[in-house]
Amino acid sequence: MPLAPVNGIELHYEVTGAGEPLVFSHEFGGDFRSWEPQARFFARRYQVITYNHRGYPPSTVPDDPATYTQEQLIADLLGLLDHLGITQAHLAGLSMGGNVVLNFALAHPDRCRSIVVAGTGSGSDNPERYRREGERLIALLNQGDMPAFADAFGRGPTRLQLLRKDPRGWQEFRDQLAEHSARGSAMVFAGVPLRRPTIYQLAPKLDALTVPTLLVVGDEDGECLAPALFIKQHVRTAGLLILPNTGHLVNLEEPARFNQQILDFLTAVEGGHWPARHPGFTTEVLF
Fold it and tell me: What's the confidence (pLDDT) of residue 283?
């Protein structure tokens, strides 16, 4: 079981395949196994790296809540790349992992060949409501019953789409979530999603970002639709893919579409065909 010594902890990771490095960063409810449909597909052409954030065994679960911040997860990702000797990589993330990847690109654009930011921006539109819901989630986690938490969390309004489309896939997601550390998950949610800046607060930094970017969001992922449009408006190297009848877990709900669109994006980037600076979109009437 490979473990990378990073920032005083150890991160579990897996490397599959050979070629240009492609790193996947998981969401709050997932772990490295959540990217299995992508690892199987992309390892045919890329060196695929999946890993667990701190707080997700077999990665270390630090006892100090202060060590769980988005900045720390970004530093962990940088440390993992350094440990693997990767100077530059394609990076992809979902939800919390998408926020990590986006902010990693803002902090370390030279380490990014491209980024894929999927289902990202929860809590940006109504931070107070998000905080209240997050505190209820943390209280449930603090009861220590991960199977009960996994049942409830897995049936959230933007996760039921996976259950409807792929019951076996949803059960696998639920069972893996039930194996997580309740203590680690509570500290992660309190320190990362509840404390990070909203997508809208990133506007000046997004305006300056030139890393090739693909945004992916489901049309039934209400928390993330407006933030995705906002990123598209501000990052002039960004393209936006909206998947129909799809919720939050875009990579698991629609793996074939998700994989093919990312492959097309990576191929365009590597071939020099991804636009360096598109004009953005406008609401002006041009006639």
Answer: 46
In this prediction the pTM is: 0.95
**Cβ-contact 224, 217 below 8 angstroms:** yes
Would you state the pLDDT for residue 277?
Answer: 62
pLDDT along the chain (287 residues), means of 10: 95 98 98 98 98 98 98 98 98 98 98 98 96 95 95 96 97 98 98 97 98 98 97 97 98 98 97 74 48
Instruction: Classify residue 86 by burial, with Cβ atoms within 10 Å: 0-12, 13-18, 19+.
Output: middle
What contacts 187, CB < 8 A, 6 or more positions away? 55, 61, 62, 65, 68
Report the interhelical angle of 167-178 vs 146-154 (nearest 10°): 140
Does the CA dihedral 177-181-184-189 come out positive or negative? positive
Neighbours of 42 (CB within 10 A): 24
12 DSSP β-pair partners? 3
Instruction: Report which residue type is found at 232.
Output: K
Are the beta carbons of 228 and 149 closer than 8 angstroms? no
Instruction: Report how far Cα 82 is from the mean position of its chain's Cα atoms.
Output: 20
CB contact burial 137-176 (16+ within 10 A = b; e otherwise): bbebbeeeebeebbeebbeeebbebbbebbeebbebbbeb
Q: Tokens representing 11?
A: 């991160």
Tokens at 277, concatenated: 């600076």
Question: Which helix (H) or strand (E) element contains residue 185?
Answer: helix 182-191
